[in-house]
Amino acid sequence: AKRPIPAGDYISGDYPAMAQKLVASSGLGKLLPRFESLHLTGLYSITQFTLIAKLPQALRENLSVRFARDLNMRDFGDRNVILFGTRHTDPWVELFDRNLNFRFEWDFGPRGARCANRAQRAGELAEYRSETSGKAQTTYGGVAFVPTLNQRGNALLIFGTSMAGSEVSAEFITNERCSVKLLDR
Q1: In 10 A of CB 112, how many CB atoms?
Q2: What separation, in Å, do the N-terminal and C-terminal C-alpha atoms of the chain show?
Q3: Looking at the predicted structure, is the pLDDT value of residue 117 above 90?
């Protein structure tokens, strides 16, 4: 429908009614009846969850998988959470935007996904965009480990400018050899 769904719509409880109106006005309902009530999950989310669930640390935790529309603000308090995707695919990521230097965004126009650099350092670009040149594609991934809203839990955010970027991010944090420097910090 080329319209973002802000976290505020989930928080207020207006999401079901808003989604129903959006589906009707966009024509999605003609393609997929009851689209607004379907539970859709991208394959990359399953792949990323599987990588994380295999970690010894994850085996000690009580892991559960929930759809974004089934979450509420209490879920971002005392417990640890992992969010896969950008605010385009999971509106709850928006809750942590203020803690992120690199913000992954989706442009509904022809320019596609990008990673905006909010606080450029020497040698860094203001934004990084996925690009395709011949058979080669450049994509970007990101990982953020930030406190939850009340500072009593942690949120791990895994995102990218494409499915491949998100998958690389998940592989990076689950590969001890690759992520040891990040973990030391």
Answers
A1: 15
A2: 40
A3: yes
